TrEMBL record:
GO MF, any single term: nucleic acid binding
Native source organism of the sequence: Oryza sativa subsp. japonica
InterPro entries for the chain: Integrase_cat-core, Integrase_H2C2, RNaseH-like_sf, RNaseH_sf
Name by which UniProt lists this protein: Retroelement
One GO term (biological process): DNA integration
Domain Integrase catalytic: 146-235
Amino acid sequence: MIKDVEVEVASITADDWRYDVHQYLQNPSQSASRKLRYQALKYTLLDDELYYRTIDGVLLKCLSADQAKVAIGEVHEGICGTHQSAHMVKWLLRRGGYFWPTMLEDCFRYYKGCQDCKKFGAIQRAPASAMNPIIKPWPFRGWGIDMIGSILVSDEFVQFADSMGIKLLNSSPYYAQANGQAEASNKSLIKLIKRKISDYPRQWHTRLAEALWSYRMACHGSIQVPPYKLVYGHEAVLPWEVRIGSRRTELQNNLTADEYYNLMADEREDLVQSRLRALAKVTKDKERVARHYNKKVVSKDFSEGELVWKLILPIGTRDSKFGKWSPNWEGPFQIHKVVSKGAYMLQGLDEEVYGRALNGKYLKKYYPSVWVNA
């Protein structure tokens, strides 16, 4: 919002950037530095007003710091202002016939500090940090489960997890990319269940075991081998193979217990090499995905104590007061703690700390308004 600032138009004080040039042009015969004499060639006095002469010979009125602030405010957010970018504001001011040496810097400072521009600013869709692929080097190297709920961050649950040897990893909310490989697996399972529930969608839980079995028997592109084979060393004998008959089942029926055990032991010895090949394929595939993902990263780094805007989550939330005119951002908030992997803990200006970390994608730097100390 533009403030009412009293501006002295006629007087030019010693701390005004126009003072030296104005004094020299009033009395060119006085001694002056070579730099000032060369600088004064670009200016002229008309009715005791200082003007800047462009390369085309157009005269632009020189404004003081207070006059420039008022002019930027009127162009940016005045009656006819449209909250345009800094470059556009500078172009409009030059087109209107005004000049001062730090026009572009001041326009950027004003634009960054405009509260309305930032509060209703666009939502960044690009990721704010590089991808961190999760690769388990061995089957059953680690077990994980997705859990959502406020009780999971309580002191009682944390103590229970420590007593059971369970390691808790908190994922920043509203950022599915940080939730690990479980999201991709769940997506595949949902697709399988959709194709099996047919006309009875409410009975999806009865098809869950069948979907899990199908998922484990399928050959996945990242490892080029079924997960079942990586665990047991050979592919499972499926019901249709028993019903139709196959060479493998026929030979198996003729084996003795000792022969069957020796063959299984041989397969387990070869299993190490199969797992290493699968690991190499997974690593290569995830590195390729990370390279493609990181091309879209718009890096954001914040430090403790820094003021930021926070995106109102979930995205699209409407305020009961503003309705469809609801802002996208709220703040300012202060960075309380920098968490790993581009996540941050926030606190309000009243020093109340928020309990969950938030990904840096949903934060942006806060710039104070130029009118704060006006």
